Automatic annotation (TrEMBL):
Name this protein carries in UniProt: Cell wall hydroxyproline-rich glycoprotein
Ranges of residues in domain Leucine-rich repeat-containing N-terminal plant-type: 49-82
Signal peptide: 1-23
Localization terms from the record: Membrane; Secreted, Cell wall
Organism: Lactuca sativa (Garden lettuce)
Alphabetical list of InterPro entries matching this protein: Leu-rich_rpt (IPR001611), LRR_dom_sf (IPR032675), LRR_extensin-like_regulator (IPR051582), LRR_N_plant-typ (IPR013210)
């Protein structure tokens, strides 16, 4: 009887060695009966560890998303996407999940996107996320993350899309943000404060949204001088002051510029005439003054121009033609004589920022925009 028991144990050990136990896998990196390699098995095991650790840290799941997060086959989990037996993406947008992120998420080495928009995640971002070498898209928007800017995510080497909108992040925006190879930088609707980093002009991004924060100081004078790929930038509803930089004209691909609801002063720079693709130009609710020039109103792609709630003293005939071009044009509550819905005269007697000196390049139409700005940039301290 004892001899039969020994033979049975030897048979079982042989089966384990050949088939990898109940899972039926072959050791040594060879292909398994299921078509998976041993390395893929290890990857899925790590994914199982990571997702189960995360599941245990989620306190509320109102839509029952995590009910499917059972068993070792993580590719069947709702919101988890696999390719070649590896987790390549997680999309839990609008899940209403309440919990935190866990350090074990760094085990998902092949994950290229992590989308968590519109949940109730709290806390800070684990340092271990810097090890997500394949990650290109990180969307943490519409949550309740807090603390300073999570600089650790700037160490994710291949990140191209960063969305931190509608959270509770606070403190300054680090210089490094605008030096990384990010195509989209969405930081609006947080509590970021302090000045916009001077590195803003170095960003290769096509979309930058800094709206609805507590940013102060000037728009960096370097803005625009380092590239031309920016298509959309939003500064609205901060506490910015000073001039609109002349370098804005270097962003030849710019389609949307919104700096409304700040305290910007001085004139609109002539360089805006270089923005041939601009569709939306909104500088309303500032303290800008002077005349609105033809250079602005002649922009051929313009669809909406708002200069309302400023201190402009007039605009040219070309601006008056905007209505005939079906361009939305709002100039209410300025200081334009003979026009309706303007400020009371006493408010126009004292123009804010009258002594403010903004860099100005005259006679914009007499030279090439790009060439002019590059030569001007060499004179900027």
């Amino acid at each position: 009887m004892e001899e039969k028991t020994k033979l049975l144990l030897l048979s079982l050990l042989f089966l384990v060695a050949v088939h990898g136990g109940a899972g039926g896998f072959v050791g040594g990196g060879r292909t398994t009966r299921n078509g998976w390699s041993n390395s893929n098995t290890s990857t899925l095991n790590n994914a199982y560890i990571a997702l189960q650790a995360w599941k245990s840290a989620i306190k509320d799941d109102p839509k029952g998303i995590l009910n499917s997060w059972v068993g070792s086959n993580v590719c069947d989990y709702k919101g988890v996407f696999c390719q070649d037996s590896s987790v390549t993406g997680i999309d839990l947008n609008h899940g209403g999940l309440e919990g935190i992120l866990v350090k074990e998420l760094s085990l998902l080495k092949d994950m290229t996107l992590l989308h968590l928009n519109s949940n109730s995640f709290t806390g800070t971002i684990p340092d271990s996320l810097k090890d997500l070498f394949a990650l290109t898209e990180l969307d943490l928007s519409n949550n309740q993350f807090s603390g300073p800017f999570p600089t650790i995510i700037l160490q994710i080497p291949n990140l191209a899309y960063l969305d931190l909108r509608f959270n509770l992040f606070s403190g300054p925006i680090p210089e490094l943000v605008f030096t990384k190879n990010l195509d989209a930088i969405l930081l609006n609707n947080n509590n970021f404060e302090g000045q916009i980093p001077q590195s803003l002009g170095n960003s290769p991004a096509s979309v930058i949204n800094l709206a609805n924060n507590k940013l102060t100081g000037d728009i960096p004078i370097s803005f625009g001088y380092s590239g031309s790929g920016l298509k959309e930038i939003l500064f609205l509803n901060n506490q910015l002051s000073g001039c609109i930089p002349q370098g804005i004209g270097m962003w030849s691909d710019l389609q949307v510029f919104d700096a409304s609801f700040n305290s910007l002063m001085g004139h609109i720079p002539d360089s805006i005439s270089c923005l041939e693709d601009i569709e939306v130009l909104n500088v309303a609710h500032n303290e800008l003054s002077g005349e609105l020039p033809d250079l602005v109103c002649e922009l051929k792609s313009l669809m909406n121009l708002s200069v309302a709630y400023n201190f402009f003293s007039g605009f040219s005939q070309e601006c008056g033609k905007l209505y005939g071009r079906n361009v939305g044009f709002d100039f209410a509550l300025n200081c334009i004589p003979g026009r309706e819905m303007q400020r009371p005269e006493p408010e126009c007697d004292m123009i804010p920022g009258g002594s403010l000196s903004c860099l100005r390049i005259p006679s914009m139409k007499s030279f090439s925009c790009g060439t002019s700005f590059r030569s001007s940039n060499s004179r900027i301290p």
